[in-house]
Write a structure and sequence with these properties.
rod-shaped
């Protein structure tokens, strides 16, 4: 397969790019590493903040869910008590009428 002029230009620029990297001073190289470390630390910090925010939202959602479940349990208990009271009242009335 024949290579076009674009491929040759691209491949020919690789040694030139490598030569440019050789010209970096030790201080420049360390500065690049410091910047990369700072970017990684910032990204890690952002991830930690996002996780903390997510955990806080999840805890709030769980608290609200538990509160709602407790309210529903109390409502169910009241309704059950009303139903049982009504049923006992009906049974007492029927027993009174039957024994009369």
């Amino acid at each position: 397969m024949a290579q076009g002029p674009m491929d040759f230009d691209r491949v020919g620029s690789v040694p030139h790019a490598l030569d440019e990297h050789k010209e970096l001073t030790r201080e420049q190289f360390h500065e690049i590493l410091r910047r990369l470390d700072a970017q990684q630390a910032e990204a890690r910090d952002m991830r930690e903040r996002a996780l903390a925010r997510s955990d806080a939202l999840h805890a709030e959602h769980r608290r609200r869910h538990d509160e709602l479940a407790a309210r529903m349990d109390r409502k169910f208990d009241r309704q059950t008590a009303l139903i049982l009271t009504s049923w006992l009242s009906t049974m007492a009335t029927l027993l009174y009428l039957h024994l009369r």
